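Section 5.1 Outputs to date
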Amino acid sequence: MPRWKSLPSGLPEKDRQLIVQLRRLKDHSGLGLAALAAKTGYSRSSWERYLNGKQPVPRKAVEELAKVCGADPTKLLVLHEVAERQPPEPAAGTGGAVGTPGAPDSGAPEFGIPESGVPESGTRPSGRRRVPLRYALAGAIAAAAVAFTAGLLVAGGGDGGGGDGSTKPLTYGPGRTYDCDDRGRKDGAAYAGHSTTAEALIDINGNGPDVVEAQCLLKRHGFDPGEIDGLYGPSAKSAVREFQKARKLVSDGIVGPDTWAELRR
């Protein structure tokens, strides 16, 4: 499969995270841009712009991509909401007008909060009154997304993983380690007692019970992920790359459905 183009250097991090996940979902589906166009309400050129960071991805496009790829859109929609609501960079001496392409503030309207629907008419009070609310909304949504992606909502709809996940403190990272069930199996698949997901996407700096599960299963297969601490750091990602190479998967270091399928063997 052809390699993706590098995303624009000025693309905000939240938009970058969303596009990386959309690209991975598309790659795992095996669908090309033409096939996506045929199965969704968006043209091939639109998908090319969305997946290369040239244009913000509409919420509906996120939903349709998840649908045609057979994936749960929930996490993708949380990322989309955060990306859409992130506050734009303030531009000196302006009242929120869209800057010219290439100017320091030009990226904010394109990838941040849409400017449509925010009239600058003199019939309304100054935009200064709207800024605190805008930032408050962005902060609230960002906080919800952080809680979501940090493992407070586990893929699989709270199926309990190994049966004791609900009793463990939801803190992950250096200084705390977790035990693995080295013999756990369910319906013929391997489990380590922390999560039953088969499709959660995990990339660098991800954390939560899904990460603990992946670390345990890597260790069971003989690939050292480092500390079993629930933080997906460089050691875990390196172990995933080696595991993917050994299983003849795409060696991108991102845990997705194909990698989970091999880890569960």
